[in-house]
Design brief:
The chain is of the alpha/beta class. It has helices at residues 37-48, 80-92, 136-156, 170-175, 190-193, 195-208, 230-243, 278-287, 301-309, 320-324, 328-333, 361-368; strands at residues 8-10, 13-15, 19-21, 53-55, 59-60, 97-102, 116-118, 131-133, 160-165, 214-219, 247-251, 292-295, 315-318. It has an 8-stranded parallel beta barrel with strand order 3-4-6-9-10-11-12-13, surrounded by 7 helices. Strands 1-2 form a two-stranded antiparallel sheet. A two-stranded parallel ribbon has the order 7-8. It binds flavin mononucleotide (FMN). Flavin mononucleotide binds at residues 22-25, 57-58, 100, 164, 166-167, 217, 251, 262-263, 295-298, 318-321, 348-349, 358.
Length: 369
């Protein structure tokens, strides 16, 4: 029976347990996206906390796809030395690290030089910015940007890549009829809406080779009327499975989903409320053989064990609990099974504008008092 603290092999990666640090934007990079000492320190601490697989914060593959200030970048070869140093340090500590590759699309912050681009033109980009509808040439450029970024990740020594197709960023925008009402070959039917993701997947696979782990993070559904449905999501996972994706991470929701966004808040202290995509995972497991990483609201070791043992998922991923307690997995492994201290308040989102980038406000307050 699968258990949390057993070694596994995921494609070519040897993992010391089944807990994954879900991609979490650290906002600790330089202004141009380059790796900093601050980011290195943060990631090393997570590795020392014994997380089995570390997925980087979403790294932007093209400048117009930047989602936030001081986000990690992977859009240019000039960033390679820093990325190489990062993987070297993580490996020296015994960690395994995957680079999450992302493009914000409509939610690009724009840098003056680069207007945000998405499936549709809109006057409602970040802070009311104008968003341009992607042309065929823009789409080709995005596909090639993902492929180049994946190659860079491999060259830099990352153990794999994860294509970010969740949470209402570019690839998720294309999948979603809520964002995407295009009338060309990239909009309309599910086959058309999935076209960009599949082109990106194929290009990434082509640039890194068959032996290199390629993962995809996708919404179980958008939880918004007219968004990506649960049935469509399973079909897209099936399309990726047929192409040879190595693992799928299931999340859900977008920034427009209110209370059902990917990082749910509120009364989530009861064990029943944990793992809010478990129902979707059940359906995935009935139809798809590719390993599933399940994220979303896990706080207790017992819940994680149950999810693994009942075969709902092969790995469980955590984001906020590890912002709060980077050594949570180590604590559990050493026998202290008290639930994660994270109270799911989401105050961590706002910290990305602070000098040090991401941190847990609740822990900081506790430490000060
Ligand atoms: C501060 C913060 C930053 C995040 N950054 C990313 C990101 O870069 N890429 C991503 O796919 N998800 C990101 N997420 C979402 C998490 O990976 C995860 O899907 C979500 O928080 C639910 O997991 P949790 O309940 O364990 O926090 C972020 C979440 C938080 C709280």
């Amino acid at each position: 029976m699968p258990s949390v603290f057993e070694e596994t092999r995921l494609a070519s990666m040897h993992l010391k347990n089944r807990v994954v640090r879900s991609a979490t934007n650290e906002a600790k990079a330089e202004k141009n996206g380059a790796v900093t000492g601050l980011l290195l320190e943060y990631l090393v601490d997570l590795v020392r906390g014994q997380v089995g697989l570390l997925i980087s914060g979403h790294a932007y593959v093209a400048e117009e796809g930047q989602a936030g200030r001081r986000q990690l970048g992977i859009y240019d070869n000039s960033l390679l030395p820093g990325l190489q140093h990062l993987t070297g340090v993580v490996h020296a500590e015994g960690g395994v690290i995957v680079a999450q590759l992302a493009h914000a699309g409509r939610w690009g912050i724009g840098t003056g030089k680069h207007a945000a681009r998405g499936p549709m033109a809109s006057g409602e980009g970040v802070a009311g910015r104008r968003v341009l509808a992607m042309t065929r040439a823009d789409i080709n450029a995005v596909v090639s940007a993902f492929a180049h970024a994946a190659r860079r990740a491999r060259t830099a020594g990352f153990d794999g890549v994860q294509i970010h197709s969740a949470h209402g960023y570019l690839l998720s925008q294309f999948l979603s009829p809520w964002f995407n009402q295009r009338e060309d070959g990239y909009g309309g039917s599910l086959e058309n809406r999935a076209r960009l993701l599949l082109e990106v997947y194929d290009a990434v696979r082509g640039s890194v080779g068959a032996d290199y782990p390629v993962l995809v993070k996708i919404n179980a559904e958008d939880f918004v009327e007219g968004g990506l449905s649960a049935a469509d999501s399973v079909q897209v996972c099936q399309m990726l499975a047929e192409r040879g994706v190595d693992a799928i991470e299931m999340s859900g929701g977008t920034f427009n989903t209110g209370g059902l966004s990917f990082a749910r808040t509120g009364d989530r202290l009861s064990a029943e409320a944990e793992g809010y995509y478990c129902g979707h995972a059940r359906r995935y497991k009935e139809e798809i053989k590719v390993p599933l990483i399940l994220v979303g609201g896990f706080l207790r070791l017992s819940t994680i064990q149950e999810v693994l043992q009942t075969g709902l998922a092969d790995y469980v991923a955590l984001s906020r609990p590890l912002i709060c307690e980077p050594h949570l997995v180590k604590r559990w492994a050493e026998g202290d099974h008290v639930r994660a201290a994270c109270v799911s308040c989401n105050q961590c989102f706002a910290t990305n504008l602070s000098k040090e980038g991401l941190f847990c406000k609740v822990t900081q307050r506790r430490q000060k008092s």
